[in-house]
Design goal:
The chain has 13 helices and 17 strands. With 418 residues, the protein is an alpha/beta fold. It has an eight-stranded parallel barrel, surrounded by five helices. A three-stranded mixed beta sheet has the order 10-12-13. It starts with 14 loop residues before the first strand and ends in a 9-residue tail after the last helix.
Length: 418
């Protein structure tokens, strides 16, 4: 494609963001609600005003299945503050319909799980289409592969299973439900787009256990892709997957996605400089070559003071992948506001805004200025707006600008992650 060719993007802005919205049953702790813990509902208008001022017109936003679905009776009032803020600030949501949580009493290994999820997806699509203008985007089930580990093998969240076999069963059940959900949504909104996100993963054998190289390679080159393969129809075609079901591939990129293999429990994140680390460009290319579907970096963020440098690295790697032919439609800086570590409750300092507790327990949003500055620099590099117009769709993303920037900057893949 010539740099000046018109190549419209899927989204109104190249940079996306989002809000942590998990509603899982946590081991020994009952139902968690991360929207409450970050006070996103109370601050919805402020949170979306922030995105507008940052020139971000797309946000991953959650509808909490366990709270909205009461035995097949649907009440979506819990998202009304977010709907009002989205409408006021003209932000397009990517609705996340299952973020690690499902209703009490529902067995994910039963056939009823998919039927119940499809009914809920249909009702959610009907509700948001009556409340907000299109276009419409959905992530039916967030991070199927990671969800299967959390609930199927590590026992962190419901259904609290602890074996590889249960993890594999849970992944297939989640894929079946996601496919049923896609089809239910499109009964209501035939043109709705789907963005299925899962982590980018690179796993290597421990240096003192080269005998585990085959297991590590299987996780890297087979396990990482199986959920996407099922959604695309490449595996378990009896479940009804197809390229149209997979639609947009969202690849989540965090430093801890590059790991040293462990036979039990979560793998160990690789230290910077480890020879097993692969450039992000190479990981993205694996996905692109497998599916040839539109791609988004579905979540990415650094931690603490490393956030601006992380964004710089991610953008160099992403543009290197664009130079190799990948059809990249956006980068999602996730989360927009900080979130707590699931295990410790401590703030991760990975958002565009940190959260500062004030008197009375109110959480004040404080933008991390160096991170914002780096975002501004990349918006200008890509010839993108830094503050949204009254109508974000009046100046849609022309990916020709992104391709032109990639050619001009000529970034090279680099495994030196900081």
């Amino acid at each position: 494609m010539d740099g000046m060719d018109h190549h419209p993007g899927i989204f109104p802005t190249f940079f996306l963001s989002g809000f942590e919205c998990s509603t899982f049953d946590w081991k020994g702790g009952g139902r968690r609600n991360l929207v409450e813990e970050t006070q996103h509902r109370e601050h919805a208008m402020e949170d979306y005003r922030l995105l507008r001022e940052l020139g971000i017109a797309v946000a991953r936003e959650g509808i909490p299945w366990p709270l909205a679905d009461r035995d097949g009776r649907f009440d979506f009032s819990c998202i009304e503050p977010m709907v009002e803020a989205l409408r006021t600030h003209r932000i397009t949501p990517v609705w996340d319909l299952c973020h690690y949580g499902y209703p009490d009493g529902l067995d994910p290994f039963s056939a009823e799980f998919s039927r119940s999820f499809a009914r809920y997806c249909r009702a959610a699509a009907e509700h948001v289409s009556q409340r907000l203008p299109g276009p419409y985007f959905f992530t039916p089930i967030n991070e199927i592969t990671f969800f299967a580990f959390c609930g199927g093998e590590w026992g962190w969240v419901a259904p609290y299973c602890n074996s590889r076999k249960d993890r594999e069963r849970l992944r297939i059940a989640l894929c079946a439900a996601a496919i049923a959900g896609v089809k239910a949504i499109r009964e209501v909104l035939p043109e709705a787009r789907m963005m299925h996100v899962d982590p980018l993963v690179q796993v290597v054998a421990p240096r003192d256990r080269p005998d585990l190289a085959d297991e590590a390679a299987h996780e890297t080159h087979v396990d990482t892709f199986l959920a996407w393969d099922i959604l695309c129809g490449l595996a378990h075609p009896e479940l009804g997957g197809s390229p149209e079901v997979l639609d947009i591939v969202g690849a989540n990129n965090y430093s801890f996605g590059q790991m040293e293999y462990r036979q039990e429990g979560p793998h160990q994140a690789l230290e910077p400089g480890h020879p097993g680390i692969e450039p992000l460009c190479h990981l993205l290319q694996r996905i692109w070559e497998r599916y040839r579907r539109p791609m988004v970096i579905g979540e990415t963020s650094g931690m603490g003071q490393g956030r601006p440098e992380w964004l710089r690295d991610v953008m160099h790697e992403a543009l290197a992948a664009v130079n190799q032919g990948m059809d990249l439609h956006g980068v999602c800086l996730f989360p927009a506001v900080d979130m707590p570590d699931w295990h410790t409750g401590q703030w991760l300092h990975n958002g565009i805004c940190d959260l500062v507790e004030e008197e009375g327990g109110r959480l004040r949003r404080v933008p991390h200025a160096p991170y914002v500055d780096e975002l501004r620099r990349w918006q200008k590099e890509l010839n993108r707006v830094t503050v949204l117009d009254a109508d974000p769709y009046s100046d849609p993303v022309d990916l020709g600008d992104v391709v032109e920037a990639a050619r001009r900057l000529r970034p090279r893949p680099d495994a030196d992650w900081h």
